[in-house]
Amino acid sequence: MNVTIIIIETLIFTAIFTAACFATTSGKNNLQIDNYPPDIQEEYFKTHDKPAPAEFTRAAAIRKGIALIVFAAILVFMAKLAGAESFLQGFGFSFGMMVWIGAYDTFFMDWVLFANMKRFRLEGTEHMDKEYHQKWFHLKGILFPGVVFGLIPAALVGLVIMLIG
After folding, report:
1. Does 39 or 31 have the greater pLDDT score?
2. Is the predicted pLDDT of residue 107 greater than 80, yes or no?
3. Which tens digit of pLDDT belongs to each residue from 63-86?
4. Measuring CA to CA, how many Å separate 152 from each of 6, 19, 29, 129?
5. What contacts 82, CB < 8 A, 6 or more positions away?
């Protein structure tokens, strides 16, 4: 597999992920409320309509499922472009990308940007500095279900790479 292509793809994949996060977490149409710590959600829902628990969970599951399919498709293209020809190469490439994105999301997006930039704060929670700096909440998320969740697209990518040769 071509290391130069992998490095370039990592940068592009990171940019796509960042753009998707920015697009789904800004303004009144924040689609990522379920990814905020519980105390921030609780404060937010004091002044905003809270969907029924089943609807809230269902909407989050649908968004994550769509993201899984989109990222798997992108990863198949990237793995093939990088030279993956076997299940293990496709799996390893895509799992590595998912681990990278998880680490980037936790250590940069969550710990630095989302914790410090007011534009990402939910309306009515702007004053909750301490709650937005909960590093352990985000670290737990990358460890489980994050890494486990990364196995799913990795397996799908490996399977597709194996089938298309």
Report:
1. 39
2. yes
3. 878 888 888 899 999 999 999 999
4. 20, 22, 28, 34
5. 1, 2, 5, 6, 9, 93
CA distance 104 to 93: 16
Q: What angle do CA 116, 149, 75 make, to 5 degrees?
A: 90
> Contact at 8 Å (CB) between 109 and 102?
no
Q: Tell which residue, 22, 13, 2, has the closest CA to residue 74.
A: 13
Q: Which residues are CB-contacts of 91 (< 8 A; sequence separation ≥ 6)?
A: 154, 155, 157, 158
158: its two tokens: 């490996």
Phi, psi of 133 (to 5 degrees): -105, 30
